[in-house]
Design a protein that fits this description.
Length: 272
Amino acid sequence: MNILSAAVCILATAVAVTSTPVEVVTRSGRLGIHRGKDATKGNHPYQVALFADNQFFCSGAIISMNSILTTANCVDWARGDIEVRAGVYKLDDTDKDIQTMTATPADRIIHPNFDLEYLDNDIAIINNLNLQRVENVVEWAKLPTYADAGINLTTVVATVTGWGSVNDDDKLSNVMQVAEITLADTSACVPEYGTGIIGTKLCATTELASTCTGDAGGPAIITVRREYRLLALVSHGSQGGCTQGKPVVFTRVSAFLEFIQDNAQAVSISDN
């Protein structure tokens, strides 16, 4: 049994339904964490903040010292350079441990089948970063294995982090926020988003906490044997806002391992 299988202790299932267009909040209505709390500095070294024209707009997750993952809806609009800042705790930090890398359009790889209308294949890679590993400051999160792709993640509790707003006021949080969310069957998202919630996506219930405006691209993580495991990326939330207890949709990372293996730099994905 692989490590992730042992962590979730549940059987594999597959979900596939017909897609229909849905209204969602993405970068344009920008996805923070509602009912979260201030993160502990140094506990989430895999998190990066993305800036354009010195303005924060999305998050991402380090998967090697050369590459990060984020969502396609975060970067498909960008025509100029993007700054990737690692080791950030507060958005206005000038801490010496912060590493800032400039990513040109040539460094960004958006999934070739990304669909902005349905938000299918909502994943992107930023390469050529040359980050330096610093323990508890800048570290990568391990990717799922190929065997993890079929595991049913329903009821798994994952940690989400970000600098998005804590309410529906569109005011970003300067301090990184953290919360735990419970992954649910994709059918839990169908009443809110329609049948576009397919097997490459994950649904999360938000009775206790929710991602919100500004959190798109951020990681959903579990910790296994003191290793960070990247399950998903925040994709989109409800048009009704983040304070109404509506479910949130994530991009399931294990559904895109071949895309990551073929395009990211210095990553290793095992079979099991």
